[in-house]
Hints:
Largest interface: A-B, 94 and 90 residues
Helix content of chain A: 40-55%
Number of strands of chain A: 8
Strand content of chain B: under 5%
Strand content of chain A: under 5%
Helix content of chain B: 55-70%
Distance between the termini of chain B: 92 Å
Low-confidence stretches of chain B: none
Shape of chain A: globular
CATH class of the largest domain in chain B: Mainly Alpha
Oligomer: heterodimer
Number of domains of chain B: 2
CATH superfamily of the largest domain in chain B: Transmembrane di-heme cytochromes, Chain C
Amino acid sequence: MSGGIKLRDVSRPDSEPLIHLENEDLMPLPAPLEGPEKDRAWAALSEPARSRYECGLDNTCAVNIPKPKTHDEEAQLVARFLSGLDKLFDKENNWTFLQPLLLTMEHCTGCQTCAESCHIFEASGRNELYRPTFRAEIMRRLYFKHVKGGGLLSAWQHGDINVNWPLVARLIELAYRCNLCRRCAQSCPIGCDNGLVAHELRKLFSQEMGIAPREIHENGSMLQLKAGSSTGMTAEIVKDNVAFVDEDISERTGIEVHTPWDVQGADVLLIHNAGEIMAWPENPGAFALILTMAGVNWTMSSELAAYDAINYGLWYDDAQFARVALKHAEAAKKLGVRRIVIGECGHAHKAMCVIADRILTGDLNVPRESYLPLLREIVLSGKIKFDPARNNFPVTLHDPCNMVRLMGVVEPQREIVRALCPQFREMTPHGVNNYCCGGGSGFAIMSGNNFPDWRFHVSGRKKLEQILNAFADCPEAETPKYLCAPCSNCKGQFRDMITYYDLWQKNRIFYGGLVELVVNAMTDVKPGFIDWEWR
Amino acid sequence: MSHQSGCTEGKLTAAVYLAIYAGLLIFLAGCLRRILVYSRTPLHLRWEIYPLPHEHPYRAAYGGSYFETQEWWRKPQVANRRGEWRVMAEEILFLKSLREFNRRLWLPSFLFHFGLYIAMAAIGCVALAMTCGLFSAGIRFAGFIHMMAPLMKASGSVGAVLIVTGACWLLMRRATDPALKNSTHAGDIFNLFLFIAAFTLLVGGFLMHEPGTASLGEFARGIVHFDRSVNISPVFAAGLILTSALVAYIPFTHMAHFIAKYFTWHAVRWDDRRNERGGAIESQIPVALGYKPTWSAPHVGADGNRTWAEIATTNPTREAKK
């Protein structure tokens, strides 16, 4: 069953899903996944999940909203939603995004240009539910009716909508069917931003109703503020783990590496996504090696939250965002470093370098930058010797949305890859016109119920098509291929999606970061840093 | 002409003048109100999207930013206004984004918008003639109007035809394209019909030019002097009244996106201004952080008395322990 739904269906009083997707409905993929029969079958939503949680959207469930037990409870939830809606349009509550939100609410002409740019809409087989304006139009009608006063004339001019608990429950889930990649906003002729609408809805649900996916709130930003990292690592544990990484890297490369901690007055405070230390230790290891060999005066911080660059608040909650950004800035101030450098994490780049720029003042406004210009200088300066022949395998580069479209860091990574990878090939399109990996805005860490099936079949599909096309000239398993993804979140999505489609076993598509490619090409390092071992 | 019919025509002419005055006044007031609403919103977080046209031309070409430079804060920010003007001109005149990303809708929308620009140019000519008429009289004004008339007639007619053609085409698209149908309101259909009706009457009335009715120059002079003796054909008068109503109505609809576009592009999409120490942005941040939110979720810790700054400097996991 695909498409055909109307806006009014979101208020449908039953809890039956509005749509159900099958492989036949989806955008076709190239070989080796051409044809619906070669695609993976979808996992069904379990009966316990269906009976306990609100799953009335699309037969998957990302947020796990418990079903209200009484009509009174439903009415209270709707009242809280409407109260939150008002707050979104009030400067005391939402100065952070009031202007862009108002502009988006009041000027969309419904031209659907955004839909042509949305990878989720296209991948779903152009299902109405995932049209960027579908969610935004619900919000717009609610805005005119409940915030601006409504009335017959308003309903005639802007459309009407019936607000009830089923609508709110579906809207909560629908806010988590957008990667916030803002490709739609990039193409809008007016400048409206439907990605922002999803962001603001998530914020309303979190800040007013206390509703957010467990993975990004309790196990994400809250855990980071409690333990120091969303991985759960405390300062002592992270230091132990990094010491182990240093030891391993020293052994693998033949070069002694020692990560410095809490060095007062260092030039660079490097902040990694701490998930790298747990899942891909070769990445922080490679960073340590490169910075050591380049003679950079750098340090890591063991202050609470300052050894984990993630800032999940960026996706759903301004208060959580500001708290984590402040922790990062305070750690830098305490150490008296000259600058903060963000490692391979896209959303951390945007959070700290771009968004936090409007909340940090005085001596908390420590200069912040991406690791990419620094890495480019190291690679191209001649300080370290490289042998590109060590990287003589097909390489393609993924552009993390937060670093590229939303921050404008496009060329440094390309200059590095062009210099070090003889078989580099671009995806189409790339740069600021890239497609999201499908794991953006928290999806890569959201794995409840059958949500991963949706994430691989729908939100990751366009990127998967791009990857397969980039390696179309060498699909055979005999040729190992490297998908370079300089972002932890994107790597998580690629790891899971490549595993899901068995593309490592069958086609030898490997993934990894950029610094691993740099170390792999260093002539002073033992050959074979990239070990082609799946992890 | 009988006295009675002269009175009726005088009333019609007065009604047209009043409609034009009222239409313009309401339009200006509506636009001003809209501009004030958006410009008075507080500083918001940075939310730019690349490419930015005011970057260095080399970077603007592929969407790069100053973040590509190591220690970017030590270098001056590039302000390539020429690039910005070029992109704005392409966007305003030729609807570049629509052409690039939604080709099916581009041609009807382009015809409609370009028609509006031409019609506005014609109105500009009339306004210029009217202004000249205020300061010069008699034969010199008549000569000027005589000289401008063909240009005004041609541009006005072409503009109106393009508007009507574009609006009809857009109407057809909205009626037949399933994607557009789902997001089309009754108001959208009404807006397009209003354009079609107003400009059809306007151009029809103007081109018919019944014997004994005023020339464009006489009409222009009549508006300035509120000269009710100027004879206007009923069709042209209906077109003028309807167009005036349309003009008055625009600022209260999403058709005012010509205002929004300034803010969405310059204040949001292209706003990469740096927060420099002692700079204008830094001075606005404490104001924003001083706002007192009332969000209800417990982890936020807002009670209407605590400021954003206080909330941001508390740790909800530590507060819960207390």
